[in-house]
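Figure 3 (text version): structure tokens given as input.
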């Protein structure tokens, strides 16, 4: 029974289907991969540039105090505008490293997941996107459930790691109150580093699982039915029946050009009207095997037969032999397994030719 377009989606999406989805901006991508790796990279950048950042901020603090002290000693107003510009410059220097790392990693990770792609279809206005009914349906789909579960897992992980970090460093936190400022900052930095490393490892593990989930989910959401594949094939390649007929006609046209060689053939083997194969036996050839000089089916078979009749070429009806010869190409020598059958035909034609010569002689 023909598939009317329904049926279960049991077939994986075809390359053509994936290409169209990609053009529409529908591609598998895990946002957790970008956020988790960027989180770790930004923290590493902050740790490596902490000394530089603290020096810049300390210099700005000294400059501000110096300017304020000079203005106060001269009885003038504090030049606020220059200090604001200097604050912006220091802020830019301090934030440049982490921001550059976040932006660069965001671009690289996006390209690594989806490749180079530019499309405006995802941001093209679509009435279905603002349909409240579709919005309510979207609240209860599997994607939302998975996102909710991921957020719960992240919250639990952060809470658990925070508890372990605080429990492990509770004694150090108490000692900060009795320590020097720089020692206290160092202790707090160590606590934060330990906390962020554990969080980063957990987030990267979650991101890896989410990456594979998103790809599998993408393939599952875009599964196709057998009917969909047939329709896609018809649209891209044309109807298989029409294509086969065009291929057959094209082959017959190419083969039909050999009908001019029929007048030089020794015999034409036919099956009664559908197949005609012209054979030529050239004894001067090293192979000393008969050769197919023309063949055709239907219209071209009739044309070869008519050409043979017009040139007085013998025509022999042999259904099995005609079908076997039709599997060969024009210009091929007869294979050994057909030697006996072809030899009988050629012998018959030779004897017939000799009888005709004798009749003409009498």
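Below: residues designed for each position.
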């Amino acid at each position: 029974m023909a598939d009317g377009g329904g049926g279960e989606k049991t077939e994986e999406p075809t390359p053509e289907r994936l290409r169209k989805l990609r053009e529409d901006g529908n591609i598998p991508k895990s946002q957790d991969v970008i956020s988790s790796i960027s989180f770790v990279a930004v923290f590493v950048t902050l740790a490596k540039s902490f000394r530089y950042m603290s020096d810049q901020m300390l210099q700005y603090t000294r400059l501000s105090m110096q300017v304020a002290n000079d203005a106060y000693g001269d009885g003038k107003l504090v030049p606020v505008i220059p200090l604001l510009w200097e604050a912006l410059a220091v802020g830019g220097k301090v934030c440049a490293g982490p921001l550059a790392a976040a932006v660069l990693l965001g671009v690289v990770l996006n390209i690594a997941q989806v490749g180079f792609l530019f499309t405006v279809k995802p941001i093209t206005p679509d009435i279905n996107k603002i349909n409240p009914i579709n919005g309510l349906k979207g609240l209860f789909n599997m994607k939302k459930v998975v996102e909710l579960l991921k957020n719960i897992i992240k919250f639990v992980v952060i809470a658990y790691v925070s508890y372990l970090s605080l429990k492990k460093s509770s004694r150090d936190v108490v000692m900060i109150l009795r320590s020097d400022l720089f020692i206290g900052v160092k202790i707090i930095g160590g606590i934060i580093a330990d906390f962020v490393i554990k969080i980063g490892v957990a987030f990267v593990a979650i991101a890896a699982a989410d990456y594979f989930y998103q790809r599998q989910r993408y393939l599952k959401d875009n599964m196709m039915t057998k009917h969909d594949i047939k329709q896609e094939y018809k649209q891209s390649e044309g109807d298989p029946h029409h294509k086969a007929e065009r291929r057959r006609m094209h082959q017959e046209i190419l083969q039909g050009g050999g009908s001019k060689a029929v007048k030089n053939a020794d015999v034409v083997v036919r099956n009664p009207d559908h197949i005609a194969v012209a054979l030529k036996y050239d004894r001067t050839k090293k192979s000393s095997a008969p050769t197919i000089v023309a063949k055709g089916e239907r219209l071209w078979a009739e044309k070869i037969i008519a050409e043979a009749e017009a040139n007085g070429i013998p025509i022999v009806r042999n259904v099995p032999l005609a079908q076997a010869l039709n599997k060969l190409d024009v210009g091929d020598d007869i294979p050994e397994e057909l030697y006996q059958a072809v030899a009988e035909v050629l012998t018959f034609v030779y004897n017939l030719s000799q009888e005709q010569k004798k009749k003409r002689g009498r």
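The chain has two domains: 15-231, 243-361.
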